[in-house]
Amino acid sequence: MPRVPLITRKDQVPEAHHDVVDSIVGSRGAIGGPFVAFLHCPDMAGRVAHLGTLVRFEGTLDFRVRVLAAMVVAREYEAMYVWGAQAGSARRQNVPESTITAIKENRSDGIPPEDLMIVDFTRQLLRKHRVDDATATAMLERFGNDQYIQLTGAIGYYSLLAMTVNACELDPGPSMEVLKI
Description:
Helix 1 packs parallel to helix 3 and helix 4 (63-76) crosses helix 7. The longest helix has 35 residues, at 133-167. The protein is 65% helix and 0% strand. It has helices at 18-28, 35-38, 42-58, 63-76, 80-92, 97-104, 113-128, 133-167. The two termini are 17 Å apart. The protein has two domains: 10-58, no CATH class; 63-167, AhpD-like, CATH 1.20.1290.10. The protein is an all-alpha fold and 181 residues long.
């Protein structure tokens, strides 16, 4: 059961912040996901939405790479809502079931090398709060400075979402895959 009332309608937000709601609905189609909680602080909700638009829709980083990182973040934070939202996206990006299962089970076997780079980078950053030189060098060679920073920022964005949905106890939607913790 959510720890905060879910904001699902514009009239639940002070009129002075209706522009934030309009922006969120305009970019995402509805008030949903973690924004049902973020909108208790409309200024934060607007800024998170703006960053999310860059991370999810406008960045040049391959969408498949973003989804892999988001899944690892969801698993590391045991964020059931984020996992549920990302598992379907991963399948639409042709991420193999063996990779999805390995991430879900905190394993590395069965993950193709190009995907394992993303998984290892994300795990290192979340578990050790930094990455080793070999991993950083390999990632910079593969992605260049801009996309290296985009990936790091995406990991931070999804970490913020994961912490928020966990703190607020948001459950995955009815049609989402549930992460068993």
